[in-house]
Amino acid sequence: MDAHDQSQPAGTDAASPELRRHMETEPHGTDIAQRLNWLRAGVLGANDGIVSVAAIVVGVAGATSETGPILAAGAAGLVGGAVSMALGEYVSVSSQSDSQRALIDKERRELAEEPEEELAELTAIYQAKGLSPETAGKVAEELTAHDALAAHLSAELNINETDIVSPWHAAFASAVAFVIGAILPMLAILLPPPGIRVPLTFAAVLVALALTGTLGAWIGGGSKTRAAVRVVVGGALALAATFSIGTLLGATGVV
After folding, report:
1. Which of 14, 51, 93, 112 has its CA 20 to 30 A from that of 230?
2. Is the Cα dihedral 204, 206, 209, 215 positive or negative?
3. In this predicted model, what pLDDT tens digit does every residue of 13-67 receive, in sequence order?
4. What DSSP designation does 161 have?
5. What is d(CA 179, CA 172) in angstroms, rounded to the nearest whole number?
């Protein structure tokens, strides 16, 4: 079998040319779900970057109109937030990956030590899904002959040995998404004249949050309007709170 044949979805050899073309162009397995999860994580990271840094720079702008303190606070929030997001994602994904690897090793060991018991277990799983005992046994035998470990991981644990996400990749993606989101409020607060920088930042941030909320809802299949309203209201409250605190501190001469 050549490399091209090995890349074909299982079962396409006996299919008609039309069906094979359809199967090749349709998303199969967990690949599409993985991509959506990455996209969802990117949207959430960008959303965090927008809100976190916007709240910081607007709060400082409420206390002072000088560009230096606003730039310093925004840069600190951007770097600190990106590092925090990366560390949090690394720890979370590392724990998940370690758990998945432990389950895979356990299943591999059980297949080596108790193959008959594992075959009976796989048969029982397919019977529970509605197959007759004869069909369930046949399916279990054929899947075991093809790839016993993959069959058990899929049926018992709903995981794929090749789908373990790298903690480093997740940390990098999370940090990049946060930085991309944080750039918007930084530009919105620094580029305009002092007299309009705060209202312009408010407007730019709320529009961006509406877009990220809509995109997140589209990915998850939820209501776009409700999602957009939630993030816009939450972002508006965060900006209003920090701006009010900054204004109060500036007016009282604390800063």
Report:
1. 93
2. negative
3. 444 555 455 444 444 444 555 666 667 777 888 999 999 999 999 999 999 989 9
4. G
5. 11
* Residue showing tokens 């750039």: 183
Which ranges in the chain belong to alpha helices (H)? 3-6, 17-25, 31-63, 67-113, 115-128, 133-152, 167-190, 197-220, 224-251
Give me the residue spans of the domains in the chain.
31-245
CA distances from 90 to 20, 40, 84, 108, 201 (A): 39, 17, 10, 26, 31
Among 203, 191, 189, 197, smallest CA distance to 232 is for 203
pLDDT tens for residues 99-153?
Answer: 888 888 888 898 899 888 988 888 998 888 888 988 988 988 898 888 888 888 8
CA dihedral (57, 59, 60, 64) in degrees, to 10, reads 130
Conformation bin of residue 240: beta by default, left when phi > 0, alpha when psi is -120 to 50: alpha
CB under 8 Å, gap of 24 or more: what pairs does 201-207 form?
Answer: 201/54, 201/57, 201/58, 201/61, 201/239, 202/58, 202/236, 202/239, 205/50, 205/51, 205/54, 205/235, 205/239, 206/232, 206/235, 206/236
